[in-house]
Design goal:
Chain A is of the alpha+beta class and 126 residues long. Chain A contains four helices and six strands, in the order H-H-E-E-H-E-E-E-E-H. Helix content of chain A is 34%, strand content 40%. In chain A, a hairpin with a 2-residue loop joins strand 5 and strand 6.
C-alpha cells in the first residue's frame, strides 16, 4: 500500500503511528517548526506550542485505532478513535497539509465534552 | 474529477451537497433506512432518528465549506466547516461507509462545546 500512497498520507500516518506509540520526539520530526493547528480550543502556532498541546494527551493515551485514512500528495485526513484513562472513546479527525515532508497545517477536530466531564469528575465538582 | 472518484466519495459528497443546500429530502435519499451513526452524544439508529438529529442543524445553517474529501469504493471522509447563527465556525468530520449507493454507517465528529455555549447564552444562563 505504501508505494501507492500520496506523500501527505505517508507523513500523516507516520506522524500518527509515532504519537500513538508515545514517541513524541519522532512524531514532532514530521511537524514543521512553524506549524499552525486549528484545534477546538483555538489556534496553536509553532512546534513548541503544538508539542505542549499534544504531550498531556499522549501521556494518558491507552490506545488508538485508525478509522479511516486518505490523502494525496499535499493533503491527508486521518480519522481515529482514542482510549485514555479519562475517556474510553474519544474519536478525532486530523486534516493536514504537508509540505517538504512536514505537516505545516492541521485542522484538528474532536469533541471536548467527554474530556471536560472527566476533568470535572476528577476534581470532584460533579 | 467525478469520474475518478470512488463510489463512496460520490455518495458522501452528494449527501453533503444536499444537506448543506438545506434539501434534507434529497440528503436522506443517500442514507440507508437502517443507518447507524456514532455521533458525539451517542449512537443514532435508523433514518428517521438520523433525520431528526440533522433537521435542527440544517435549519440554522448559514453555510458550509469543504476542507477535505477523500474516499474509495466503500468508505469516504468529508471534513468541513459550518457557520450557523449560533456558532460562526463549527468544523466537523464524517467518516462514512457506503453500500449499494447509501450511507449505512457514519462516524460523526465535532466539538459540542461551542454549541452548548451558544445554547447557554441563548437561555441567559451565562
Amino acid at each position: 500500500m505504501t508505494e501507492q500512497m500520496g506523500a501527505a498520507l505517508r507523513i500523516a500516518l507516520a506522524y500518527h503511528e509515532a504519537w500513538t506509540g508515545k514517541d513524541l520526539d519522532r512524531a514532532m520530526s514530521y511537524v514543521a517548526g512553524d506549524v499552525v493547528c486549528d484545534a477546538p480550543a483555538g489556534r496553536i502556532e509553532g512546534a513548541a506550542a503544538y508539542r505542549e498541546f499534544m504531550a498531556p494527551f499522549v501521556q494518558m493515551l491507552l490506545g488508538a485505532t485508525v478509522i479511516a485514512a486518505f490523502g494525496d500528495e499535499r493533503t491527508a485526513v486521518v480519522v481515529y478513535d482514542t482510549a485514555t484513562v479519562a475517556v474510553a472513546s474519544g474519536p478525532a479527525a486530523e486534516s493536514v497539509t504537508v509540505e517538504d515532508g512536514k505537516i505545516t497545517y492541521s485542522r484538528f477536530i474532536f469533541d471536548r465534552v467527554p474530556f471536560q466531564q472527566a476533568r470535572e469528575r476528577a476534581s470532584g465538582s460533579v
